[in-house]
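B., you asked whether I could sanity-check this one before it goes into the benchmark set. Here's the sequence:
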Amino acid sequence: MSYFDELTDEETYTPRRERRRRRRKRRGFGSFLAVVLSLAVVGGIAYGAVTFGREWLGELFAGPADYEGPGQGSVEVTIPPGATIRQIGNILVDADVVASSDAFVNAAQDHPDGLSIQAGDYTMMQQMNSADAVEALLGATAIVGRVTIPEGFRTEQVVVRIAEETEFTEEELNAAIERAPELGLPEYAEGFTEGFLFPATYDIRPDTTAESLVQTMINRFIQAAEDVDLEARAEAAGFSPLEVVTMASIIQREVRHVEDMTNVAEVIYNRLSDDCAPMGVPEQRLQMDSTVHYALNSYETVFTTEEERATDSPYNTYRNGGLPPGPIAMPGEDALNAALAPSGEDYCYFVTVDLESGETRFAVTEAEHQANVAESRS
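And here's what the prediction gave me:
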C-alpha cells in the first residue's frame, strides 16, 4: 500500500485544506486579540471612573477653600457694628485676608470665642488661614478712632484737633502734655513739647489714654530723629539737636514744597553765621514772618505788618538776632532733614511769590530780593 493509501479522508492533504487551516489560526489569534483589547478598554474606563470618582468625592468632602497661611503683607479692614460672622467673612474675602467666607465661618464657629469679634478697624495680613484670621481678630485691639496731625501744627492746634476728633478733652490732653518729660521727651528738648509731638496719623484704641497718645507722639518723634541721625548730624553742623528742631520748625512753616526746604535752611545758616551781613541783613536776624505769627498766635496771612514785626517777644526774629528760644511748630521728617542739609546756594533772602501754588523765589542780594517782593505784590 502506498503512502497516500494509508491517509484517512480527513487527513488527505490538499492545498485548499491547508489554506482553511491557516485562516482558522488567524481567526483564533484575532479573536484573542479582540478580547484582550476589549478588556483593556473596559479596564481603562473603569480606572478613569474610579479616578474621577475619587477626585469628585475629594472635592465634595474637602471643605471650603482656605489658605495655608501664615499670610503676607498687610491690609486695613473695617468691621462695622452689628456685622454677622458671615458678613465679616465676606469683608475678609474682599480684602483677600481669607480664601472663602465658609472657611472663616467654620473657623469662627469652632473657636470658643469666635462669635464675639468686635467692630472696629483692624490691620490684617492677606492670604491667612481662616483659623489664624479668627485668632488675629480676637487677639487684636480694635481701632475705634484715628486722628491726623498735619506738619506745621503748633501744640495748641494739636490739642484742638485731637479733642475734635476723639473723646479726649483739651484739659486731659494739656495735662498729659505737661507730663511730657515723664513720658519720654528727649533731654535735649529742654522741656519743650513744641516741635516734639510728631505730625502723623495715630490710631485710637479702647485702651488709649491721653497720656499714652502723647507718649506715642513723642516716641514717633524719637523714631524720626533716629532715622535722620539728628544728634550726630547736629553736632557735626555745630548746633544742638534743639536748635536743629527749631530751624526745622521754621522751615516747615515758611514753605509748602519739600524742594524749597533746603534753600530755606541755607538762608537760615547764612544769616546765623553773619554771611548775609554784606547783603543787608543786620545782626544775624532771621526776619521770619512765621516766628512773629507764633509770638502773636495769629495765622491769618503768611505775611506780617510793620506793627506786628515790632512785637516785643523773644520769638520775634525781626527784632532779635539768632534763633528763637525753641521750636514754633511740629516739623516733619523732610524739614528735619533739610535743617541738617542746607543747599549751599549762598541765598540770603526768599519770598513766596504765588500764594496759591506756594511758588517761592530765593535771592542772594537785597536788590534781587526786592524784585521778587515786587513780583509777589503784583
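One thing to flag: The chain has 14 helices and six strands. Otherwise nothing jumped out at me.
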